[in-house]
Fold each of these.
Amino acid sequence: EVQLVESGGGLVQPGGSLRLSCAASGFTFNNYFMHWVRQAPGKGLVWVSRISSDGGSTMYADSVKGRFTISRDNTKNTLYLQMNSLRAEDTAVYYCARVEYGNIPYGYWGQGTLVTVSS
Amino acid sequence: DIQMTQSPSSLSASVGDRVTITCRASQGISNYLAWYQQRPGKVPKLLIYAASTLESGVPSRFSGSGSGTDFTLTISSLQPEDVATYYCQKYNSAPWTFGQGTKVEIK
């Protein structure tokens, strides 16, 4: 069974840092591109970042470029999102999601982890 | 960047009604369009990809159509379990932008 389990969320002050993790199981992790998507409380879905299957190619939304870094450890079947210089507007539930073969998006999602940026 | 605009933002319909949600891209995206359902308090679920291909396990009352800039999600006979917010998403290239969502309620 495919499982994606996020962790690492919590309360952080503006300007602070946080690293999210997404532990994958039930599939061959290093065969799949992975994304991060976020959702502010009561708001819609927003794409954040993407990483290729081997980690060699990454892309970011303009709103997080230069502050967030996506990475993966295929030996640990884990996806990461390093978030620096956090702002109040980064407050959201962060989901990791798997891209399916054929570039079909998000057949599987994690349950999400809440990041709250507040003083 | 290409913008994705859904309409309406919300709708209320009766059980058994036919419901249509529209998603418009500001530039052509061929058929690189997905639809998701997010029930209250739940994780989003993929319904349709490639504009009209039904994801495995999704009820056949859901259908998608369109290509280029204009797309439609149709629920042929609305059921109580379809109460949710529906999102479209383009995936031809980055950024993989979502529409703002359409909230569907039962009248």
Amino acid sequence: KQEVTQIPAALSVPEGENLVLNCSFTDSAIYNLQWFRQDPGKGLTSLLLIQSSQREQTSGRLNASLDKSSGRSTLYIAASQPGDSATYLCAPLEGGKLIFGQGTELSVKP
Amino acid sequence: GAVVSQHPSWVICKSGTSVKIECRSLDFQATTMFWYRQFPKQSLMLMATSNEGSKATYEQGVEKDKFLINHASLTLSTLTVTSAHPEDSSFYICSADKTGTHGYTFGSGTRLTVV
């Protein structure tokens, strides 16, 4: 059974810092992996999708990497801003289903 | 882009009544939609996979007679919480797979409160 772990559970940083969010999964037989952002009481916004054959994807200040063999993905956020404050969720796709981690709650202070 | 609309965004109902939540893909067709439940400070738990034109597939531990799913068209899936009880109070979110892309788009969620 796929299990997804995200570290840290919570993170508070001053504005402008670069930061890394970690995601690990136990079963490497995934089709792809998505990173999502969730604001309080809201749905999920897709940030990046990495196919299993890819190593990384970039969108603006966000960069996600994937090491399928070791069961790890990281989300790198450059020059963090208060508007980045949210919960970040990673979800590998396996058997047609997204399996979610508990998320990292990020707070970026002005 | 791919947009999924979920309605209502919040609902309060009395214990014992039924509530229907709609999930629509606005600009694409979705043969498969998914329903999740999220309790406060917890992650999303998949409840069921909704398949257009056929019966939904429920995850272990989810009561299919309590959570009725209908996926009558390529753009609409509905979740009906029947005979709701306070323990059903939760945040329900749907998602859809833009057919062939395996990239999932989520609705904005429905906050259900049963009193």
